[in-house]
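fold-stage: in
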Amino acid sequence: MYTVKITLLTLLLLTGCAQHQIVNRANPSANWNADLYQCSQEAANAFPVLLSSTTQVDPTATAMRNYSNSMSRLNAQEALSSTNCISIAPNSINCTSTGTTAAPIVVQQSPVYRTTTSDANAANREQHTARCLASKGWNRELIRR
């Protein structure tokens, strides 16, 4: 079992460090930049940018804001009251509290919203560009050392 782990780790390290190159064996004189530009333009025409926004309540941010606000109100209320204790015997303490004893003020606050915007056609453009480059003979190959 130990040998298998070492072999797998070695294989992972070797492949993780492998370098690749993009080549066109079918047409060695092909111009990568020109083909990439042409394929990208085709993809942009076929799949234009399509922004999509979603707005959702962020429960973590809402909870954190509500907690912070409630602690501020609680601290302000505690400042209005005080308790004094005096030891009157070895096992006896006399405490006197003054000030407010009202329940904390609870204010329902609106939630915190997060808006996320993404391009719905981004993956389609990438796939179209990759297929177009492959059709022109471009491939990604492992560099042999």
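fold-stage: in (second)
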Amino acid sequence: MIRNCFKRMTSWFVLCASAFSLSAATYRLDRTNTRSTDPNDPTRIVQTGGQRTNGYEVGVNGTVTDAWKVAGGYAYQNAAVIHATTAARVGAQVGQVPHHTFSLWNNYQVLPKLGAAIGIVRRSDMFAAIDNTVMLPGYTRADAALYVSLAERTHDRRSGSLVGSNITVRGRAIATRRPAR
């Protein structure tokens, strides 16, 4: 249950040779009665008390040319336990939540009915679970897509797409175990 939530957001539109928009937001989410996967038995769910997530994000979105569009963003978030239970101590980082995330996506309209896109996503190290003993390494992933419009008329929205995630197919490093605190 989300008990307290606030988000402040602002946007700017920058007009130069092309049209771009820039947005920024800060937020705080307080949650109570949170649950997480049991670090010792992934088939069980455990109560993890209360959590607080503080963060900010910045995004850019724009048109470089009539055919080329770009979208990107950066987010910082700190998610921690603020009310302890037997499964999670106060101050423990919430699992699967990286502190830093960056993304950049380029979309190019090759032909009127054919578009292609490529993008990258970067995530920093994060804990695997609420006990903070296993650290998952950060990674960079490259994604690609091909879009085809099947529309016969302007109002027809039929389309198809082929999307590839992690197209570099590089293996990721194995998680490292941290000593208990």
